[in-house]
Amino acid sequence: MWKVVWATLLLLATVCAQRGYAKETKGAPKVGHVSVVIVGGTGDLAKKYLWQGFFHLYANQLSVERCALVKEQFLKLAEYWQLKTSEDYQALGKHLTEQLTQEGIVEAGRLFYLSVPAFAYADIAERINNSCRPTDGAWLRVVLEKPFGHDFSSAQLLSTQLGTSLKDEEMYRIDHYLGKQVVSKILPFRRENSKHLDPIWNKHHIERVEIVLKETLDARGRIPFYDQYGVIRDVIQNHLTEVMTLLTMGLPANLSDVKEVLRNKLKIFSALQHLDRNCATIGQYQNYNLEVQEELNKTKEYYSLTPTFAGIMVHIDIAQYEKMPIILTSGKMLDERLGYARILFKNDIFCVQSHNSVHCKPKQIVFYFGHGTLQYPAILVSKNLFKPDLMDTEWKEITEHKDVSVLGRKDSFISTENLLASWGFWTPLLHGLAKTSPRLYPGGADNGNMLDFKLLGREVTFANEAVVMIPQDHMGGSGAESFQVMQGKYRSAEMVSAWPEELIVRLAADLQASAEKAVREGGRFHLALSGGSSPLALFQRLARHHYSFPWRDTHVWMVDERCVPLTELDSNFRTLHDHLLQHVKMPYFNIHPMPVQMNQRLCVEEDSGALLYERDINQLVNASSFHFVLLGVGYDGHTASLFPGSKLDAHGDSLVALTESPAKPHQRMSLTLRAINQAQKVGVLVMGKSKHELVTQLSRVKDNPNKWPITGIRPTSGRLVWYIDYDALLG
Q1: For 633, which of 171, 328, 610, 714 is 20 to 30 Å away at the CA?
Q2: pLDDT tens digits for 291-303?
C-alpha cells in the first residue's frame, strides 16, 4: 500500500516497496511494508531527483499498468507533514505505527532520507531516534547527503553527534558517484581481467593515473553552499577520491565483503603521502565573484578565494605505486561536460614511420563515466594492451567507434572510517590553500591553455605564465575587465603588484635580468637574500624554471641569520639551501653563509663573526655595493634582523651587526641599513592578506627607522622596488 500527505514545511512519503503478508522464513530478510520519509522533500534535490527516483521504483513494480494510472496511484500515496518540532516527530512516529496496526501490515523497516543542510543532521537524527524508531525487529536506515563536514574536525564532530542517536549500520552516507554504472564496475573489471592486469598494475608499467570531472555549468543558484566548500570539498574529497581508492586498493577475496573492501580502502588512505599547497593548482572562473556578491549580498569590495577549479597530484607510499603520479582534477565553467578515470601505461615502442600503427598509440584503460564525445558509460581498453573479458551480460563489446577524446549495497555508501580517513588526508591541503588566490579564467573555450598544469617531481604548477584577470573597478579604475600586472608607486618608490603566482614570476624575471646585466658588465652578480617564509616561492621558482640563470657567476650572501647552527631548521641558510642552493649548479666558494657559529659557540661578540663577514663583503663586493638585496617586512615593520627600538644609528658605518629579536631565537646577525642602502637595487617582497593592515599603515607613516626599520631603506644611488601581491595590497 502507498500513501502521501501534504503540509507546509517538510515532507513525508510512505512507500510500500515490498508488501506482503506471507510468513517470513528463518534467517531471511524481513518482508513487508517500508515507510520512506523524505525530510526536505520540497527542496531542489528532491524536486530534481528524489521524487523521480522513488516514482521509478514504484513504477517498476507495476510495469504492466499505464503510466498515467501509475502516476495517479503514486500521488495518492504521499502525505505532506510539517516536521519542525519534537512534537511533530512524535506525531509522525505515532501515525506510522497506528497506520500499520489499523491495516494489519507487517513492517519491514523505515527509511529516512535527509535532504537538508548538514547542520540539521544531528537534531533530526536525535528526533528520529527518540520518536520514530520502528518496533518488532524492523530496521531503521537514515540516508545522509554530502557534505559530511567541512574538514576533519567538523566531520569527526558530526560523526560523534550522529553516533549518539544512530548505529553506524543505520547511517547511509550516500555518494552518488559510487552508484554510477562504470564506477560500480571498477572492482569487478579488475577481478575479471586480473590475469592481464596483475603484471602491469604497478609503477613499472603505469605512467600516471588521471581522474577527471569537468563541468560546463557555473555555481549560480548554489553560491550559499558552494562558497563555503569550493571544488575540492564539493567533488574531489569525495567522488574522485573514492574512484582513486577503487583503482588502487588491493582486490578483496570477496567483492561482496563490505568489511574487507573497507579495510583495503583504509590501507590506501594510510599510505597516501601528505599534501601541501605545492601539490595543487587552483583557479576561479571570472564571473564567480560577481555571483557571490549578488547571491550573498556582498559589497563590490568583497573578494572570494573559493576555488572553482583544482588540479592536484597525489602519491601513494607503497612499493606498488611509489612515485607514480595520480592526478585528480575538476572544475566548473570548463569547455565540456565529461567524467573519466584513465590509466595511462608506458609505451616502450618507438615508431620510426608508422605512427598510425596500433602499437604507436597510447596504451590506456579509460573508465568513461559518461557525457563527452562518447555520451554513454563505457570501459575502453587500448587494442595494444589486451582484449578484456566481459564481466556480465549487461555489458557488450564494441570494437568500432569514433575516437574518444579524454584529454582536453552498503559498499555504495561511505562508512565513518572511510569518511574520516578521506577528510584526514584532504584537510591539511585545504588549510594550506585557504589564503591562496586562485588563478582567474574566463570560462568555456576561452580558457584556452590557461588551466593546463605540469608535474615537477611532487609539485604541480600551471604550465603557462599568463597574467591574471583583475576587474578594473576592483583596482579603483573603470571599464572592461582585463589581464594585467599593476605598476605604480608606494612610499614614493616603484611598486609592482599582481596575484601571488604572477608576482613571483615577475620578481624572478627581474632578478635574472639584474644578474645577466651584472655578469655582462662586470663578470659577477652579488645577491643578498633574507630569511622568512615570503621568499620560499621565489626560491622554488628560480630552481625549477630559470635554467639559464648565471649561477656560476653569482655570489649568494645572507641579509640576516638566526644565531643557531646552520644545519638546524630555524636557520635562514638551511632554508635557502634546501629550497634553492642544492638545486642549482654553483661553485661552493660563491656561497657565503653568515658565520654565526665560531669556536663552538653562537654569536659571541668576542669571536668577531660580524667583522669577519664585513671583511669578506669589502674584499669581494665592488665598493661593498650588492647588485640586488631582497628584503621582507615583518608585522612590526622590521626588515632583515633590524627591529623596532634597537637604536639602528648605533651601527654607524658598520656593514654587519649583531642584533636582538623580540622573538626566539633572540640573537641575530644582520646587514645594517648602511650595507643595504649601498646596494644597486633593493626589492621588498610583501605577500598575504595578513600583511594588508601593515601595508596600509606603512603607506601613511613618515620615515622613522627606529620605530619602523623598513622606512630606513633608502638606497643612496640605487633603486627601491616594492613587490606587493594583491592580497597584501587590497586585503
Answers
A1: 610
A2: 999 999 888 878 8
